Every structure is written in C-alpha cells, then in structure tokens.
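step: validate -> pass
step: tokenize input -> pass
step: predict -> running
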Amino acid sequence: MRLLIWLLIAYIGYRVVKALMPPKPPVPAAPARNSEETVQDPVCGTYVAKADAIVGRLDGERHYFCSMTCLEKFREQLDHTTPPH
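step: predict -> pass
step: emit ->
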C-alpha cells in the first residue's frame, strides 16, 4: 500500500513540474514541396523530375532520361534495332 502512495505522489509531482515548465515550441511543418511532374527513364526505369531530366528527341517525340549514360544506352539500343537503309 505504501508503494502505491509513493507512486501516486511521484506521479502528481511529475505532473506539477511538467505543468510549470514552459511549453515546447511546436514543430514546424515540413515545407510544402512543389508537386513537380516526374517522368520515367525508358532505359533504367528511374523516375526523375521533368525539370531535371535530360531530354532526347526521336522522330519529334521527347524522351526523358535520368543521366547522359542512359541517353547513350538508349541511342545504342536504337542503333542495334534500326535496320540499315
């Protein structure tokens, strides 16, 4: 029974001290990100922000790549699949 009384006194003391402490400042919300449009690299499948993507054109169509390496691989694949004229 004594243990319960001591635990109750400790809890009440904790609550009193906590009430006397200044409140913590609120955590700022994460800054809102612009909802950028993303595009998928046709070579590796990585999604990249359209504004940051490397653009390649083929027959008037735009293709977006995450890096020059993927753009070069794409071009190599085209060279291997395109029949000679």
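step: describe -> The chain has a mean pLDDT of 87.
step: cleanup -> pass
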